[in-house]
């Protein structure tokens, strides 16, 4: 199938398809007239890219998954990558919770001192 049909089926723009190709994530083939053509396997690759992207993976990380997808890799290798990403996400959640607590503390200080000229939002005890 050509890029227009592939774009409709995958529900992504032609520009995204071209970008994925440029980044080495998608390897559509070309006809003699230089038109791009895509297969059912390419649809599965785009579905995997979208799934990983929606799960917070970077394009660099997605590329490493696609390398596993194209090889004879075992689920254990995928599991290790998923567990590593989960650790990163948990760390980020902890950081965000800490930021949230500091912001809440600053908001309370502003509420307690509404007539103060400028609330102390940059205090190291808050942020």
TrEMBL record:
Gene3D superfamilies: 1.10.1660.10
Organism of origin: Leptospira idonii
Any one GO MF annotation of this record: DNA binding
Keywords for this protein: DNA-binding, Transcription, Transcription regulation
Entry annotated with the keyword Ion transport: no
SUPFAM superfamilies assigned to the protein according to its UniProt record, in alphabetical order: Putative DNA-binding domain
UniProt xrefs under SMART domains: HTH_MERR
Protein name: MerR family transcriptional regulator
Coiled-coil spans in chain: none
UniProt entry tagged with the keyword Transcription: yes
Stretches assigned to the HTH merR-type domain: 1-68
Superkingdom field: Bacteria
């Amino acid at each position: 199938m050509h890029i227009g049909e592939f774009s409709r089926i995958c529900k992504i723009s032609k520009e995204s398809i071209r970008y994925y190709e440029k980044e080495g994530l998608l390897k559509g083939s070309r006809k003699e007239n230089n038109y791009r053509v895509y297969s059912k396997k390419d649809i599965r690759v785009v579905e995997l890219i979208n799934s990983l992207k929606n799960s917070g993976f970077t394009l660099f990380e997605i590329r490493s998954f696609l390398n596993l997808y194209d090889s004879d890799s075992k689920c254990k290798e995928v599991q290790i990558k998923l567990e590593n990403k989960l650790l990163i996400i948990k760390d980020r959640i902890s950081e965000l919770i800490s930021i949230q607590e500091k912001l809440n503390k600053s908001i309370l200080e502003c509420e307690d001192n509404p007539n103060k000229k400028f609330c102390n939002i940059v205090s190291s005890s808050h942020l």
